[in-house]
Amino acid sequence: AAKDLGRNRFHYFTASMQEEARYRMILIRDLRQAVNKKEFEIFYQPIIDLSTGEMHKAEALIRWHHPERGMVSPSEFIPVAEDTGLIIDIGNWVFSQAAKQSAHWRDKFGVEIQISINKSPIQFRDEGDSFEDWIVQLKDLNLASNSICVEITEGLLLDASMGVSEKLLAYRDAGIQVSLDDFGTGYSSLAYLKKFDIDYLKIDQSFTRNLESDTDDVTLCEAIIVMAHKLGMMVIAEGVETEYQKNLLAKAGCDYGQGYLFSRPIPAADFEQKYIRAIAEMGHEKVSS
Ligand code: C2E
Ligand code: MG
Ligand code: MG
Ligand code: MG
């Protein structure tokens, strides 16, 4: 009986692995099609200055409208896009969209905000890196280089093979700001904060989530903020969902907050209506939150 069970389990296991492989192949096929057919959209989530309540920045977050499945989450398809190299085309598209959007809001409303885009480590590989082309696009749109901020993750800083150091220096020379995303979740080595020129630390939402109940998380957030400031970086807290979290972070000196308390990521038209128009009508960059 034990042998039967074992065999059944084996069968079950291979079946589900086959299913997973098949599912993955379909996802890759669909993703290729999505790139060609432009099935993506960018949602924007405001980043709020915690001392004034003003909105200065937004993060561009990709959405995929799958023709049959509806909205597919980036956490599902970005890893596949990275494995297949499709992230290069997708990432370049995200950059162009964000840059055009930023120029559009400037031209139509006179409102300039900084848009952050997520750049995958795969995009840093020499054959795929379109950094020079991005600079040309910014020039063509007459956008200041700090109109775009590039979010990277800690893993990238560990990869010496891609000349990351030189690339980040080129960013600085070009005036493009850099955020370290999901700080505290990767293979963090504090030495990297000293070695690389980073403008913003984004405290991962796993630290902000339990601020109300976990005093260790309070301590960690406070320490990260002090450390970042002493190293000349500004701090953005991710995943701010409650007034309590916002107040605690503001009191600890956190510069910016991002999270559902202020807004979920929303389509460009909604973002324009809710934030850009409001700023234009008030004549300055103040949006209540
Ligand atoms: P991320 O860069 O850390 O982006 C923040 C994620 O947290 C977003 O998930 C956002 O919707 C979510 N979030 C924001 N505020 C809150 C909150 O208060 N509570 C909770 N629970 N979540 C919040 P999203 O949009 O699903 O994106 C997931 C990840 O996918 C991103 O994490 C990023 O790593 C990746 N991603 C998204 N767009 C792109 C892109 O254009 N290029 C690349 N390479 N990666 C992207
Ligand atoms: Mg990000
Ligand atoms: Mg993050
Ligand atoms: Mg993340």
From TrEMBL:
Keyword Transmembrane part of the UniProt annotation: yes
Domain EAL, chain residue ranges per copy: 24-279
Subcellular location: Cell membrane
Domain of life from the UniProt record: Bacteria
Broad class of where this protein is predominantly found: membrane
Coiled coil: none
Keywords associated with the record: Cell membrane, Membrane, Transmembrane, Transmembrane helix
Protein's name according to its UniProt entry: EAL domain-containing protein
Native organism: Shewanella psychropiezotolerans
